[in-house]
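Task 17 of the worksheet. Students: predict the tertiary structure of the chain below and write it out as structure tokens. Keep your answer in the requested format; marks are given for formatting as well as content.
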Amino acid sequence: MKKSIAMLLTLALAASSLAACGKSQPAATQAPAADTTAASAETTAAAEGGETEAAAEGEDAFADLGDFTMMVGHAQPEGNPRYVSMEKFAADVAEKTNGHVTVEVFGNGQLGTEKEMLEQVVAGTVQGMRGGQFDFSPRLLMFTLPFLAQNRAQVTALLQSDLAKKVCAEAEAETGTVIINLCDAGGWRQFSNSKHPITKPEDLVGLKMRTNGMNTIDKTFVALGATTTTIPYSDLYMGLKTGVADGQENPWVNVEGMKFYEVQQYFTEVNYQFHPDPFYVNAAWWNELPQEYRDIISECATEMGTYNDQLIDENQEAAKQVVIDAGCEVYEPSEEELKAFQDAVQVVYDQCVEEGIMTADELQEMLDIVANTK
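Model answer:
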């Protein structure tokens, strides 16, 4: 790839030189007098050949904008929809900027925990990160209310709503980051544990459930009678294996990718939550980019988000089957049983309004979006 980029840069410089005085005048006419004859000869030769190199290869519209490197971190392993879609994003940005913007993606928690990566973005030591980390943008938690949405159309409607755009816009003033995309962090989230099946809220009483420290997850488990312990995602497998936590909650694609089914026996397909997956970018770095590059990166981020959600939808059932094939028990509650879970966590809605995560009007706006989307 480095050779390809070097070749593109060489061609870009050649095209830039030829285009400096306009298409009708070759750049060589600006050379010192001693080089005039050689330049004329080169121009004549090119004309006799039919086309200049610039015409043959296409002019590099970004040659004068400079080169930029964008380091981006995330916590997911190879094969996860976030990992795959980020690789696509990097390739798309390189292609559409003629190699002048290079996206270096560090997956699998190479740059630290999600919180640590977000801190690095805020500090400007890396340019971006993707992940459901809301410590610095807690208002995004409004979209993680338990049992808020029931299908992909409703999730998309919420994440693309004017309310979501407003909440994302607040991030720059509050954190010094720009959120350039908001997609799904992994699909519907399920419960699992190593003790016994969870078929009703009472089955969670006394279990120690791992969370990532997210406010609404903690509130949900407490409302259901469990206790919580915070374990970083990259450490969760060992935390479950050693009994630091009895159980956890995650989407099927995460359970498969991180092999949690090896250290958990009982799963409940409760579909209780989805998480937004914000793509945070350091605002100072972003605002220094030429507008042309910002437009391209934004476009590629939008395409990445759509591709990410498509991958999640395509892979959820297959990931669930891996868990079943591994010998785990997967319980699917009836509508009546599911309603018992939903009723038990309604207190979380009131708590989030009281804490200012959202206003009562914003809660109603989300409920209206869901009700009006089939």
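Marker's comment: The chain has a mean pLDDT of 87. The first strand starts at residue 68 and ends at 73.
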